[in-house]
Amino acid sequence: MALMRVFYEFWQTECCGTPFAVGDRVGRRLVTVGRDDIDSGDCAEELRTHGAPSRAEKHGGPAHETVGRVRSVDLVHQDHAERAPGAHTLEPVPGTRSLTLVDACPKWFRQEEPRTEAGLRRARRTTGVLVTLDVADAAPPEPRDRP
């Protein structure tokens, strides 16, 4: 067995995912992170920052699932802010990402209400979970992986 890091975006669980906990045996369709993911920016920063070579995909990807035992679950948090007053969208704020080690993946993710800071709306969002799976034929463990 080997450890594998996987990023699971919050909406994948909220839409049609099943919550899981440390110690559970789970199966997920995994998509290797490629150039399109990095260019789109959707979850690319989480993937690059935390070394997840794969992301879970409930709405596409391969027909087979990668099966493994959950060794750790970290909530991924990110601040978002307006670029200019009155903007309709909040964008990620560089350097504000953090992880919180938890025992289980929630079904619903916390999205703090926007607050105002220097005239700009700002919110702290939980963007997903970073999961360490113990799977057969995975990439070798990284030094930062928790046993």
Helix/sheet category: mainly beta
Main beta sheet? 9 strands, mixed
Poorly predicted segments: 139-143
Average pLDDT works out at 78
Order of helices and strands: EHEEHHEEEEEE
Tell me the overall shape: elongated
What is the percent of helical residues?
10-25%
Q: Report the strand count.
A: 9
Tally the helices: what do you get?
3
**Percent in strands:** 35-45%
Distance between the termini: 12 Å
What is Rg? 16 Å
Summarize the topology.
Layout: E1 2-9, H1 10-16, E2 25-28, E3 30-32, H2 35-40, H3 44-50, E4 54-56, E5 66-81, E6 91-92, E7 98-102, E8 115-117, E9 120-135
Parallel strand pairs: 1-4
Antiparallel strand pairs: 1-9, 2-5, 3-4, 5-6, 5-7, 5-9, 8-9
Structure description:
By secondary structure, this protein is mostly beta strands. The chain has a domain of 97 residues. Helix content is 14%, strand content 41%. It has 3 helices and 9 strands. Strands 1, 2, 3, 4, 5, 6, 7, 8 and 9 form a 9-stranded mixed sheet that branches. β8 and β9 form a beta hairpin. The longest helix has 7 residues. The termini are close together. 22% of the residues are buried.
